[in-house]
Design brief:
Number of strands: 13
Helix content: 25-40%
Strand content: 15-25%
Order of helices and strands: HHEHEHEHEHHEEHEEHEEHEEHE
Low-confidence stretches: 1-27
Largest sheet: 6 strands, mixed
Distance between the termini: 55 Å
Number of helices: 11
CATH class of the largest domain: Alpha Beta
CATH architecture of the largest domain: 3-Layer(aba) Sandwich
CATH topology of the largest domain: Rossmann fold
Strand order of the largest sheet: 6-13-11-9-7-8
Mean pLDDT: 87
Radius of gyration: 20 Å
Structural class: alpha/beta
């Protein structure tokens, strides 16, 4: 078998020793997979921008789960190049009909959404097809949550099960307590978390910056990084970025994520600490992320239920 054949075999082999060993041990490769998950059914990765889809594809490959790719037009080339030509396709986010047709063609039992669709793409640059127009017309409210929720229902109508987007990414999730060398002050953290969750419940954003109980900035439509950059105007210390999930978060398409860009924005905004919801927030390339936070002298803390 040549190199190309071996590449395909890694994606389409029904079950690896790794997955079989996990099953013999009574476990799974991810605690976010359904109890009846059948790896031979295959997963189609619906990829947006950023490194998240690439890491997710690598995790599925390591578990020898057969996988295909349907990538947004602006998805990174790195994830695109992981898949052979007959197991990948690109789509404009307004082409829901094309997405669903490719999903049927690939024949996967499961779908997993990972990566960003830039918020502005929900309002411009879309090439709506009939399926998208029909789906949008059925929504009384049109925002990211309602649109992606409707997409998940359309996927289910194809007989494909949308997976929790944290699946296969367990090792990159925030854990409780101090995660780096720098210590994050936890005084007044509970009040900051309460405010962050209240704002998230209103679908405004999933992050805030606080200083000793005072709210300095709230994440809005412009996203986390822009919020952090706005904090530069506050010439003060002990600024802490708090990231949370919504009370009724749909993790099939909406996972709180931090990455290298977050650290860069924090440094420019003079924010030295972050508190992340443990178990629900992804640290992309966790080991490298924490090493970079240590290098910058930034504290990273995971908070649990006891502090909410």
């Amino acid at each position: 078998m040549g190199p190309f054949g071996r590449l395909i075999a890694r994606f389409v082999s029904p079950k690896s020793k790794s997955f079989a060993q996990a099953e013999r041990n009574g476990g799974r490769h991810s605690r976010f997979l359904p109890n009846d998950f059948q790896p031979a059914g295959g997963v189609t990765l619906l990829a947006g921008r950023g490194r998240y889809p690439y890491l997710c594809a690598l995790r599925m490959r390591a578990a020898a789960v057969p996988c295909s790719l349907i990538a947004a037009e602006d998805a990174d080339d790195a994830v695109w190049e992981l898949f052979p030509p007959d197991r990948r396709a690109r789509f404009n986010p307004g082409q829901i009909g094309k997405l669903l047709r490719k999903l049927r063609d690939f024949g996967s039992a499961y779908a997993l959404m990972a990566g960003q669709i830039a918020p502005k793409r929900l309002f411009r640059g879309l090439k709506f097809d009939f399926t998208a127009l029909r789906m949008l017309a059925s929504l009384p409210q049109r925002n990211a949550e309602s649109i992606f929720g409707a997409l998940a229902r359309e996927i289910e109508r194809q007989g494909v099960l949308p997976l929790d987007a944290r699946a296969f990414m367990d090792e990159d999730l925030a854990t409780e307590g101090q995660m780096g060398r720098a210590t994050v002050p936890t005084q007044n953290l509970r009040e900051g978390i309460r405010v962050a969750r209240a704002i998230a419940a209103l679908n405004v954003g999933q992050g805030i910056v606080v200083r000793r109980g005072t709210i300095l900035a709230v994440e809005g439509f412009d996203g986390t990084d822009k919020m952090l950059l706005r904090c530069e105007e506050f010439r003060t210390d002990r600024k802490c970025f708090i990231k949370t999930s919504k009370p009724n978060q749909d993790f099939r398409f909406d996972v709180p994520v931090v990455g290298p860009g977050t650290l860069a924005a924090m440094e420019r905004g003079g924010v030295r600490h972050m508190a992340l919801e443990a178990g629900n927030t992804l640290l992309l390339d966790r080991v490298e992320f924490l090493a970079e936070a240590d290098r910058r002298g930034m504290g990273v803390y995971g908070y649990g239920k006891a502090e909410e």
